[in-house]
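During the no-cost extension, the postdoctoral fellow (Dr. R.K.) reprocessed legacy sequence entries with the updated structure-token encoder. One reprocessed record is reproduced below for audit purposes.
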Amino acid sequence: MDKFLKKLPEAAQSYLEGHRLDEVECIISDLPGVARGKAMPATKFSTQKQFYLPNSIFFQTITGDWAEEISDDDYTEPDMVLKPDLATATAAPWTGDWTLQVIHDAYDQKGKPIPVAPRNVLKRVVALYEKQGWQPVVAPEMEFFLVARNTDPAKPIEAMMGRTGRPAAARQAYSISAVDEYGPVIDDIYDFAEAQGFEIDGITQEGGAGQVEINLRHGDPVKLADEVFYFKRLIREAALRHDCYATFMAKPIAGEPGSAMHIHHSILDKETGVNIFSGPQGGETDAFFHFLGGLQTYLPQVIAILAPYVNSYRRYVKDHAAPINLEWGRDNRTTGLRIPICTPESRRIENRLAGMDCNPYLGIAASLACGYLGLKEGIRPGQSLKGDGYGEEGDLPRVMSEALRLFAEGGKVRKVLGEDFCDLYEIVKKSEYDAFLQVISPWEREHLLLNV
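Re-encoded structure tokens follow.
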């Protein structure tokens, strides 16, 4: 046991100092980004190199149903081999005992990575960059709402009650006093993040009622995706301690802005560590424009990943702090692709299309895949947009069915992400969309029942 504990990251060791580790949660992300796995006594985990779960967890939809292909007569629900990545070991500080979480990687029984596992999809894309001598760097921004408890799906979601006894107010972007309204939740988020060894770059109030943004430090794509995966659980647990919910729905409250997972991209030369988006004199390079061109060209084909649910498309509304197009602009938040103010060394491209409801591994993988194709093919972007992007025509899919059609046609980007993954993802998303179409909404009952 002591030998095992010495292999843990410093933050995990510090968390356990003076305490006996009781339990380890062995987890892996499914397609929606839900943590699947099992818990086991720490003494057992410390002696095991792997454990098993059926590969059917990747066929499960967000509703808990199974995608259509799972019912094939030849399907036997075989086990995957799950191996721990001890570098991801981190505290679960909200539990009643001393517990660690460890992310696992999925392999088949012959030792090959399972191609449909989200973490493996991202690793596949990162490996393509590394083969070219490039080191991709990302910095995700996480937006979410703190809302009142809601146990009735027929009831609209409402803002949480603040410490003043009033509901959290909307249209208070960047207000410190608005953040103070739910300060106890934020305090627990900070405490949990510190216990888990995560560094928060900043927390701000966004434009929605009870809407918060957390920025993470830039770094390795897989590591940052792991952190977002962990953060979603951390934030939910902090909210539950204060009688409210944290939701990562793209558009939880009508009339309020949606929640995004903006992804900042830069690429380093692996040998020199130099940002390839900037030249020797500090100017923008061909690589910078080619990455932009790849995003403009191929992002429509992966919108089904960046906006994975029917609710996701409610976020793409003009004048609501969300993109409606694939334009790019300098320091322009009305465009889908934004170039922030930065030094040549930190020059980066911000993809504003991904919703916070997307799986972080898949959202980052999809964005990187588009940029990779742009770099490889030397694609040039259109002219930068200098005015209001909301005055332009929207060129994003407006509904899930259109996004899935474009995803099915995306031959080149599907090869980068992996055909096996794309085939399965398409099946799962079509199953979810078909389930949605069976539901009759309040709008339909109100306006169609007696009027058509």
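The two ends are 70 Å apart (CA to CA). The longest helix spans residues 221-240. The remaining legacy entries will be reprocessed before the final report is submitted.
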